[in-house]
Amino acid sequence: MAALADRCPLLVVLGADLLNHGRLPETVTDETAFRERVFKGFRDEFLRSIPSDRKERVGRLIQFLSLVTPAPQEDRLVDLAAGVLGCSALDIAEDIDALQAAGLVVENREGIRLYPDLFADAVLLDACLDFSGRPSRLHREIIARLPAREFPSLMRNLAQADWATRTRMRTRAPLFQPVWKSFLQRFRAATWEPKLRFPFGDAGNALGFLDGLDVQQQPVREQEDREALLGEWASVALFLPENTLELARLAMSMMADPDAGGTGQPAKAPDSSRAAVSRALPRLLGPLVVWHPDYAAAALEILWSLDSEELPENRPCDANGIGAIAAAATFEFDKPLSATQSVIDWLSVKLLEPGAIERLQREPWILSAPLKPFFCREVERHWSAGRTVHFSSLPVSLDRVRPLRQAALGLVERFFGAGQLALAHAVIPAVEEAIMPCCGRFGRKVTEQEQEAWRAERLAALRVIETAIELHKDSPSLLIRLRRTLWRCIEADPDPSLVAECRRTHARIPDGFSLRVARLLTSWPTDELDVRSGSDLNVGVTEAERQWEAF
Question: What is the pTM (predicted TM-score) of this model?
Answer without folding.
Answer: 0.86
